[in-house]
Amino acid sequence: MLCRTANDLYWVSRHMERAENTARLIDVTTRIAMLPERLDRGKAEAAPWRRALDALGAVETCQKRYGSIDADSVLDHLLLSPDNPSSILSCLRAARESARAQRVAITSEMYEDLNASWLEMRGLGTASIGREGLSNILERVKSRSASFRGVTIGTLGRGEGYHFMQLGVFIERAEWAIRLLDVVGSDRDLPESGEARDTIEYFQWSALLQSLSAFETYRRLHRQSVTPAGVAEVMLLHEANPRSLQTCTHQLHQVLLTLAGGQTLEVVRQAGALSAHTRYARIDEIITDGLEPWLQNAMERLDRLGNAIHRQFMTAVDAEEARLALKPVQHPPPQLQFQAQTLA
Fold this sequence. Notes:
Layout: H1 3-33, H2 41-56, H3 59-66, H4 71-80, H5 88-101, H6 108-121, H7 126-132, H8 134-155, H9 160-185, H10 199-211, H11 215-221, H12 228-236, H13 245-260, H14 266-279, H15 283-289, H16 291-313, H17 317-326
Helix pairs in contact: 1-2, 1-4, 1-5, 1-8, 1-9, 1-10, 2-9, 5-6, 6-8, 9-12, 9-13, 9-16, 13-14, 14-16
């Protein structure tokens, strides 16, 4: 398969997954912002929105563009802004454009579904949010993403194209398992007991589960009340949760093994090591050592894995050798920022 085709298919699924997870981020932030977190109402409303941006590494960008961080500015930045390449609207447009460039590599049903999503959402604006309600619009975004995922599974042959789209889904979903957990768990140390310290904390962790459609899964796995340790375990380490970090890294390893076709590749080794890291981790040890450093480390490894996937499958060898000859290898400082789309 051509590098450009692999790259486009990979990013079609990444952009759709990113749009869905951005909708989930807005949903959980809205739920938390409605809680009476502090006596100072202004801080109570602004703090969750700042944490949402912080989980994306976008605080400075939003502050510079809007002058302040509040519900309106963050909603515009994450949902509607054409200047933000990771906004929901930009993701849907980018997914549709990449799919249009590779129409021969996907099924007609897949393109028609993507095109319908774009036509339905392109007129989205502040007026439509006020008319339809934010929660209804977020549900539509999630439904459109689920629809495309279903059409892809049901119509696309299990060749290289399908595998590259699976890579895009699971690496994006793995990153978001960390980002969404970071929204609730980043500003505090989790108690070693694993229990919520007060009612507000209980509702915040419950809101996170509900936004991820994981509340029922949690109830089946944990008979006791919602606890920070229990939620973190379900989101990071539990294979029964289809959006957990453990599930995503395992799937990435399996897909890369298939694409490698028996070759010994560095990208497969990285994926296997990361899968083992999440498979055999224990939540009590993570809490003892600190949740935030563990999340930071996992995000760094995912970022390196994403770069390795691009180098292995989506970059022409001659171009890569020329680039390396001109520029020494550098290791950028770790940070929780979105990986920009790269073209082969």
